[in-house]
Amino acid sequence: MDNDTRFLLTSQIHKQREVKDVREVFTEAKERAKSMPIAVVHDGLRSYDEAFNKEFFTLANPRVQNVRSVGQRNGFNQNVERLHGTVRERDKVMRGLDNEESAKNFIEGFKIYYNFLRPYMGLNRLTPAEKSGIQLDLGENRWEDLIKQACISRKLPPKVFNPSSP
């Protein structure tokens, strides 16, 4: 997650947080950001340190800082911890995610909602996308407009998405 805009670059659900899983997340975040971060902030899990060393460590300057931030209240990763709480709340209402495919689908939909649809008081009622400078000119029905724009950008025929059909 970008600290300034709260734009969620990547998110994955894993049963465990092993080094290979963390490296996947770091790699995807680097590809989406298209630049190296100033710092990577994470909780105290050792697999994050090892994955950081494999993905970001270099002797060249400027170096990416590895920031271990333990604690939800006083740590630097409060926004990520809050996001995790929101995901857990939603998962509880849904009575869990039955399998890996449903978990991946949920996370992809949630990422769209989080980045493009939900305004945040901490961002002056902007979405993370708007704070990042991404303007999509979404109307009153933001979900529908977002889906329509996705269809247009993928050059899908109009009949593929028709919100009024059953």
Q: How would you describe this structure to a colleague?
A:
- The chain has 166 residues and is mostly helical.
- It has helices spanning 19-33, 46-55, 78-93, 100-117, 128-131, 142-153, and strands at residues 39-42, 65-68.
- A two-stranded parallel ribbon has the order 1-2.
- Helix 1 (19-33) crosses helix 2 (46-55).
- The longest helix is centred in the middle third of the chain and has 18 residues, at 100-117.
Low-confidence segments:
none
Strand content: under 5%
Radius of gyration: 18 Å
Number of strands: 2
Query: Reading side by side through the largest sheet, how are the strands ordered?
Result: 1-2
Main beta-sheet annotation: 2 strands, parallel
The helix fraction, in percent, is: 40-55%
Sum up the overall morphology in one term: globular
Keywords, separated by commas or semicolons:
166 residues; mainly alpha; two-stranded parallel sheet; 2 strands; 45% helix; 5% strand
